[in-house]
Every structure is written in C-alpha cells, then in structure tokens.
Amino acid sequence: xxxLTCSNLTLGYEGRPVLSGVSFSVNEGDYLCIVGENGSGKSxxxxxILGLQxxxxxxxxxxxxxxxxxxxxxxxxxxxxxxFPATVREIVLSGCQGRLGKRPFYGRKEKELAAxxxxxxxxxxxxxxxxxxxxxxxxxxxxxxxxxxATQKILLLDEPVSGLDPKVTLEMYGLIERxxxxxxxxxxxxxxxxxxxxxxxxxxLHVGHETFFGTCAEYRKSPPALRFFAxxxxxxx
Amino acid sequence: xxxxxxxxxxFPFVRYALVVGVxxxxxxxxxxxxxxxxxFSFIGDGLSHVAFGALAIAGILxxxxxxxxxxxxxxxxxxxxxxxxxxxxxKGDAAIAMISVSALAIGxxxxxxxxxxxxxxxxxxxxxxxxxxxxxxxxGEVWLCAVLSLSVxxxxxxxxxxxxxxTFDEDFARASGTRVEAYNLLIAVVIxxxxxxxxxxxxxxxxxxxxxxxxxxxxxxxxSFKAVxxxxxxxxxxxxxxxxxxSIIYGTPVGATIVAVDLAAFLLCCIAARAKGGK
Lengths: 237, 279
Ligand SMILES: Nc1ncnc2c1ncn2[C@@H]1O[C@H](COP(=O)(O)OP(=O)(O)OP(=O)(O)O)[C@@H](O)[C@H]1O
Ligand SMILES: [Mg+2]
What we know:
heterodimer, A: alpha/beta, three-stranded antiparallel sheet, B: ABC transporter involved in vitamin B12 uptake, BtuC, binds adenosine-5'-triphosphate, binds magnesium ion
C-alpha cells in the first residue's frame, strides 16, 4: 500500500536549486535509505517531505490515511539542544504535541504512549535523567522515542548513527530494524554508510550527480553503487 | 531596622510597590529559559532601548499615562525585530543593534531638547536605572501592571507545553503541525509586555538582568524544564522582594539592588552546582 509519492521534485533555497528530478514512492513497511555525498541535498529532501519548506517544483503526496503531521522525525542534531535543561521524559512526551489538538496539557493517553516508547527504546531507567548529560547514543534513542510518539506509520531519520561508536551504531540499526520488521513502521533514513544501507534497506535512493531509485538488489548493480564498491575494494558481496 | 520597615509598610504605596514588584519579577523570569536557549536575549536588550526611546517621547508629549503609549510601540518593535532576526539576508544582530542604539540616542536627544524638567540628568538616570518610579506608581498603573503580569503568567501556563516544544526543537514542532511562527510571535509580544512592565521596577538598562539571571541560575542547578521554570520563578520573586526590602531599609536604588541580589543568587547557584557535581 503506497504511503508517499514524490514526483519530479526540485528542491532548493531562495530560488537556487540544489537537487532536481527526484522521483520515488514508498510503500507501507518499506525501509528506504537515502544516500549521497555531503551537501547533495539529503537533509533538504527530508525537510521538504516534512513540509518545513516548499518544493520549487514537482509534487509530494501522502496517501492511504497518512497525514503530513503524522510523521516521526529524527533530525540531524541541532546546536540548541546540546545544553537544554530537560529530562528524557519531558522530551519524549513532547513527541505527542501533534495529538494535543486544542488541549493545553498532555493527558493520560499521551503519558502512557510516552512510557511505552521509552520502554521500547530501553530508556525507562533513564526517564528522570537530564538529556544534556546523556551519551550520544542515549540521546539518539531519546529522539527516536520522541519520533515514535508522533507516529506509528512513518519514521524519517536523518543520519541516526552519525557520531556513534561501532557497537552503539549496531544497536541503533537493530532498534530501527525491529521497528520496521515487528511493528511494520515504514522507515526513510538518510545514511552515509552505504554498506549498512544495502544490508538493512529494502529500497535505496541515491541523490547527487546521478539519481537512482530502486530496490536494494537493483542498486547493487547500478553505476553509482558499482563505483562506490569498487573504491571500497568490492565488499558488496 | 524592623521598625523602619514597619513604618514604611504602613504606607499603601509601598505595599502596592511590593506586590507589583513581585508580580513583575515572576513573569519576567518565566520566559528566561526560552529567551536564552532560542538566542533571543538580544531582542530583549534591543527592546529595552526602544522602550526607553518611547518613554522619552511620552514624557515630551506630556502623556498622562506613559504605559499606554510605550506598550504598543514596544510590542510593534518586538514584531519587527523578530521579522528581521529571522531574515537571513539582513544581518539580524546588526539590524537590532542599530535600532536599539538609535532609539537610545534619539530618546536622550529628545529629552534634552524638549524637557521642561529642571533635573534632566536625574530624569534620564531614573529611566535607565529605575530609581524610585516603582514607589510612585498611581493606582491605575498598579492595576495595569497586575493585570498584565497575571495575563503573562496565565498565557505561560496555558502554552507551557507548546513553548517547551518550540524552544527545544522548532523543526520537529513544525513537522508535528504546531504553529511555530504564531508562538514565536507570542513570545516576542510577551517579552515586549514584560519589558515595559519591568521598566517600572528596574529601569530599562537593567531589564535583561531580571529576565536572564533567574533562568541562568536555575539552569545551573536543575535538569528538568519544569524544575528550572518553577525554580527561576521562585528565585526571581525572592530576589526582587529581598532587593526591594533592602533598598527601603538602606535607601539604595531599587533596580540596582534587585539586580545585585540576582547576581548573588546566581553565584550561589554556581557554587551549589559545583558542590553537587563534585560529589
Ligand atoms: N538554510 C539554507 N539556506 C541556503 N542553503 C542551504 C541551507 N541549508 C542547506 N543549504 C545548501 O543546500 C545544499 C544541500 O544541503 P543539505 O543539508 O540538504 O545536504 P546533505 O545532503 O544533508 O549533507 P550532509 O550529508 O552533510 O548532511 C548544500 O549545498 C547547502 O549548502
Ligand atoms: Mg544532512
């Protein structure tokens, strides 16, 4: 069942395009990895899907009951959050803000949802701890739990493993894979780690000089991937 | 000492001043965290200068009620400053610095040119540093202050969760359908109101201290947003009360005394944080 269709997108800032001719679609339960060099426009694409900025051309359509504000989002870390005085619980709960509607305060339902998602991410023991004193991996799990409070359907993750050590990176990939397999959450993830992308993802979108979209198997045989794996010493198999 | 205090407290205007001072201190501390973390502190600073300029003009026009002129002007300036601050093409900081020093200069110039007062430097000094204006509030002004500061507190409580979300992560809030622009506007307008109110208490140069010190102190010691907010409110009220009482007893300037107490509280919090961290 199709959830998101982007056709012939052109993206950019202040009239200057950074990325054009991007078309792809995402079905329920897909695991899409977006790869490409630094500055190729991956974060811009994600922000456009989220509605934070308008596309310069082309269309984005959500289908089958997915609403634009029902997407969970894990941003590339911003500077403000680094010394923010807030507990894990407060931050996870803020993922429920889209459910508030016109109510001013969170009710029992939202608090239960936050507790459930903290448990899923293994944060229950940390819930009263201060966000700024957590390790990078723990902080990412907090933001992932917050994203889960916003959606049960689609998660958009912008480089969720950047800055994490190899062991924590594996754990993070494991958590994301479980959400995809067991809870049926659609994953759209930006990654620099092409080797991991072809291992976990069902589909790949490569942006940059040449754009590629297709299943993982097709991607392995495509020119951009072949060039990448050649430079890495052919570890694709 | 207690005797002096009792004599003063017998005057209704002193009691009014204390009540208004406490209310102003409370509402000015609430948005401190948001201001500091959203890098909005410079807007607060710029606005206090605009408010000074507006007050100078109100004085020249011989308006009976300054606040009714100063308030709308400052709110308007807040909206404009927020716009320029968000515009990436104009250098936001530079624009704000220009607006604020211009307001300061023009205010002082106008006061010099048109003032009928015999004690001009005294007038300027009291607008900048507050002096005794809190003690000379009329009954109408006391009511206006009370109503405005209670509305600020009510708005803050009502929008607490939204303000948290918008302060912590604007993009996430926007993606969740929260109207971030509207809340930024609300924050700017509320800051303007707070600045006009606080000008009565500490004068326009010291306002930033009243807004930022309690939040900075609380952030040293506490780790949850709720605790930081509550503690900075309490700290601000206690400091203001203490500052006002000291200034009544020893005849020191109100605004400067309050800010000095705020500073002392901040240093205490730093020590407390270090002691806590050392354990
Ligand atoms: N707010 C902005 N205003 C103007 N240009 C921008 C803005 N943000 C990004 N850009 C430009 O758009 C291009 C794409 O940026 P984007 O952040 O989407 O890249 P990215 O693929 O996510 O890179 P990375 O892998 O480093 O995260 C870059 O050339 C960048 O300089
Ligand atoms: Mg990026």
